[in-house]
Amino acid sequence: MAAGIRVDPALVERAVLELAMEGAHGETGVWRTVYSPEWVAATDRYTAWCEEAGLRVHRDAVGNVWGRLDGTDGGKAIVSGSHLDSQRPGGRYDGALGAIAALVAIRTLKERFGPPRRPLEAVALCEEEGSRFPSANFWGSRAITGAIAPDDPETTHGYDGESIAEAMRAVGLEPERIPEAERDDLDAFVELHIEQGPILEQSRLPVGIVNAITGIRHYVVELRGTANHAGAFPMDLRRDPMAGAAEIISGVVATAHRMGRPAVTTVGRVVVEPNGPAIVPEAVTFTVDARHPDPAARDALYAKHEALMREVAARRDLEISWHHTFDQVPLTCDPELVRLLEEAAANQGVPSLTMASGAVHDTQRMAARCRVAMLFVRSKDGRSHTPAEFSSLDDCVAGIEVLAAALHALAY
Amino acid sequence: MAAGIRVDPALVERAVLELAMEGAHGETGVWRTVYSPEWVAATDRYTAWCEEAGLRVHRDAVGNVWGRLDGTDGGKAIVSGSHLDSQRPGGRYDGALGAIAALVAIRTLKERFGPPRRPLEAVALCEEEGSRFPSANFWGSRAITGAIAPDDPETTHGYDGESIAEAMRAVGLEPERIPEAERDDLDAFVELHIEQGPILEQSRLPVGIVNAITGIRHYVVELRGTANHAGAFPMDLRRDPMAGAAEIISGVVATAHRMGRPAVTTVGRVVVEPNGPAIVPEAVTFTVDARHPDPAARDALYAKHEALMREVAARRDLEISWHHTFDQVPLTCDPELVRLLEEAAANQGVPSLTMASGAVHDTQRMAARCRVAMLFVRSKDGRSHTPAEFSSLDDCVAGIEVLAAALHALAY
């Protein structure tokens, strides 16, 4: 394995800053939703950089931009990349850094080692966040893996009401041709992404190597009791869904905390009916987002949560119902790729930690078609999905050098 | 004390049903906000009934309707009544029953015993609920007790934006003349009202005698932490205001429950920022409505709540702040009037319970000018502020007979 692969920090810095100009929001924010003029401009810029680096560019049917460096031996492609769309607003690094990293790594390898044996591709994916079309997460990676149903484009609607098919046509894409974006010639996908959490920062390490991506379930839980006068109804006769919800929320948070890292459970959303200060509520609806990357631990976490919800509702004589709005099984990354990334980090002299991802990523989708792994770059204060997200240039460069070393080992 | 005072059930039933036609909402509901056409029609009807009963009618400067039966000896007036305005929607009984009760009781006494020694007055008060002008609760009783400031009419705004002064002018009242509504010639005020809670029903008793009205404090509590990614941020590093809020809500509810009747604490309103299922919230704001009719117990309840809020916030490293939007001291009813009502119930053969009111009432305001007490009539399922509120005709009649007996003892 090659050691001492260095990338040009100035190249990385310029790319991050220039890409952030497309959809710039305030001083450090980015507001770049899929198929918007800002997103189109970002893909144009990415295309130009690929061409500048001597890569063959292909924009596929959903708008993913591919930059390819052919391999002398042919075969299935080694791919890296991430998404160009952002939260509303997000920051400069979430997604964008991974697309830039792939391009910079391949350009660096080409300049230093010439053409690879195996084809290398950088990809800028579209609509990972679902920030314009809330049910269209992973639109780009779903197209590549054949996971967009024929009627999805017309039935997937944005916050403004328009279908994603209309938005595609507005930027010159033909929804009917989405199946053409599918790929069956991929060997490996390695995505570099900011961590979005504080674990690397706490560990004082610049880079993480992701060996698993968490399983997630989103519960929507509704507790119903009886609305009553806050003054005239004694405590012992109430059927108060707020008291039940508070007990469940305390309990699920404590369960995940006690189970220990990487278990996480979050209640981020609560809606109360009628939500008046002097009325015992009729109903409290809340979400429970519970995650664990280990399949058995995940099942145990969910079982504990559900047992608590049932027990509290029964004891407090409340009606309870729940459904899942999202249920994704954990992904174990390819052990060979993980080992390769660990070795690359060691060879490059980059201290790293092998860890699970608590966030979802395009990588999970890509796993349907090829072996996958990920690299994390340290996030300041663990923040993301905000203009305040930040990763230092040193950390970005360290991550890209590990990526380049791994791509070198795979393709040369 | 006279025993065997009987009122005509048909008169009570007809009055309840006819008054409910003004602002009828669905089958059993009433939507009658102050100074609306429905409210004007209800006051017209009440005026006509007073005249029919041979009472001298006076509409005061805020729109309270008074029906007076002069006393042969003169002196300060013995008054009963309640409010004609409703929730949006409310039911047929909350307020309306007390206005009807006063009129029916005085009419019954007049027909059976002739003119009293002391003046007797029935009053239909305006805007107790604050359901059109949220900060105008007790508008009618505040006018009577001189508790409306000169600029209140212009600065008190309704949900639709108009000032209460405009609404008064639209029905022919002059806000400048509000001071003329003040009374300094009242001796006693006895308000009959539905219980709005389940205590009488649980005790299988038709009537309650109110010896105290609860003290209430409304806290608005804001807990601030740090918004973070629900997946990537470990439990042990979070500053999660939702977890803190849940612990506080569970705790305050448990404290009031453990303190026992009549302590009550309610969290009826919760607002979460940003309220997304996959984001650890930045802030959770919630109300705490805490009530106790005993001044010392009330202070103890509040102290326990505040100690818990401080402790949870400090332990979880959350910023906490709170303010009061409402803080009303408890009212102890006049012991002489309470004893008189208990004796009247016993003489009438009406089983009763002496109890505190957990709800606020015009009576609290009237206490500034005269001695006060209240009568409660059993509420089906303890419900109020809903079209489903119901009190049986038998219970209403029993309550009015106790009221009439007490007014007889006071005025004859």
Percent helix of chain A: 25-40%
Classify the secondary structure makeup of chain A into a structural class.
Answer: alpha+beta
Number of strands of chain A: 18
Series of secondary-structure elements of chain A, N-terminal to C-terminal: HEEHEEEHEHHHEHEEEHEEEEHEEHEHEH
Topology:
The structure is a homodimer of 412-residue chains.
Chain A: H1 9-20, E1 24-25, E2 29-30, H2 37-52, E3 56-59, E4 65-69, E5 77-83, H3 96-113, E6 120-125, H4 139-144, H5 152-155, H6 164-170, E7 186-194, H7 199-203, E8 207-213, E9 215-224, E10 228-229, H8 241-259, E11 264-266, E12 270-273, E13 279-280, E14 283-292, H9 295-315, E15 319-328, E16 331-332, H10 335-348, E17 352-357, H11 362-366, E18 371-377, H12 393-411
Helix pairs in contact in A: 1-3, 3-12, 8-9, 10-12
3D architecture notes:
The structure is a homodimer of 412-residue chains. Chain A is globular and about 80 Å long. With 412 residues, chain A is α+β, with helices and mostly antiparallel strands. In chain A, 35% of the residues lie in helices and 24% in strands. The first copy, chain A, contains twelve helices and 18 strands. In chain A, strands 3, 4, 5, 6, 7, 8, 16, 17 and 18 form a nine-stranded mixed β-sheet that branches. In chain A, strands 9, 11, 12, 14 and 15 form a five-stranded antiparallel β-sheet that branches. Chain A has a two-stranded antiparallel sheet with strand order 1-2. The termini of chain A are close together. Chain A folds into two domains: 9-213 and 330-411, Aminopeptidase, CATH 3.40.630.10; 215-328, 2-Layer Sandwich (Alpha-Beta Plaits), CATH 3.30.70.360. In chain A, 58% of the residues are buried. The first copy, chain A, has helices at residues 9-20, 37-52, 96-113, 139-144, 152-155, 164-170, 199-203, 241-259, 295-315, 335-348, 362-366, 393-411; strands spanning 24-25, 29-30, 56-59, 65-69, 77-83, 120-125, 186-194, 207-213, 215-224, 228-229, 264-266, 270-273, 279-280, 283-292, 319-328, 331-332, 352-357, 371-377. At the A-B interface, strand 9, strand 10, helix 8, strand 11 and strand 12 of A face strand 9, strand 10, helix 8, strand 11 and strand 12 of B.
